[in-house]
Prior knowledge:
Helix content is 24%, strand content 29%. It is of the alpha+beta class. The strands form four sheets. The protein has a four-stranded mixed beta sheet, with helices on one face. A three-stranded antiparallel beta sheet has the order 2-3-4, with helices on one face. A three-stranded antiparallel beta sheet has the order 7-11-10. A hairpin with a 6-residue loop joins strand 10 and strand 11. The two termini are 34 Å apart.
Amino acid sequence: MSEDALPIEVHWALTVPADELVDALTPGERDRVAMIRTAEARDGIASSLLLARTAVGSWAGVTAGSVELHRRCPRCGSRAHGRPTASWRSVPDDARWTAVPHLSLARTAGTVVVVTTRADEVGIDVERRTDRVFDGFDDVALAADEARAVDDEARLRTWVRKEAVLKAVGRGLAADPRSLVLGPGDEPPRIARGPVGPWHLQDLDPTYGAIGALAVRAAGAVRVRVTQVLLAGRH
C-alpha cells in the first residue's frame, strides 16, 4: 500500500449497558442518555458516544476524556442532531480546542462503530444481520431501474451501502435512498448513479451478527484499519 494512501481508522465495540459506562460519560452525555426511554437505545447511544471519543482520542494521541463531541444540523441548526464533529485538548487546562479528523458513527443492536479520517466526506453504517427485511423494501429503497436483490441479505447490503454514502455527503436518511443507484447487493459494492466521485465504498462487517459499509470520497488509495475496542467506565 502506498505511503500516500489516505488513512481511515474504524473502531467498533460490542454494546455495554449504559449503567456500566456512566462514570466515563460527560455530564452532557449522561443527561442525554437519561432522557432515552428504552434500555437498548440507552446502551447503544452511551456506547456510541464513548467509542467516538475513544476513537478520536486514539487518532489525536489524547485520552477520551480530552475529547468533546458536537452536532449541528445543516438544515435546522439544531445541536441535538446532525453530522458529528469533534475537538480535543492536548492538556486538561488548555483553553484551545483543536479540530480533528472527520468522523461518522453508526449503531445497531449489540454493536457500535465509528470511523475517523482526514477526508471530510466519510460515512459508515451498520445493521443487525437478519433473516428478513421489512415488507416493501424494494419500493422504498431501490430506484425503478436499480437491480433487485436476490435475497434479504443482499437487500440489507444495499441498504447499509446507501446509508454510508448518504451520510458521507451529509444527508443521511433525509435524502430519498432511491436517488442513489448502486450495483447489486450480492456483488462487490459500486455506485452506478449518485454523488460525483471518485468514491471508496467497501463492505465492513464488524461481527458475524452485523452487516456494515464504509464510504469515503477519495481520489487515491486508502488504507483502512479496523480495531475492536473494549468499552469500560472511568476513562
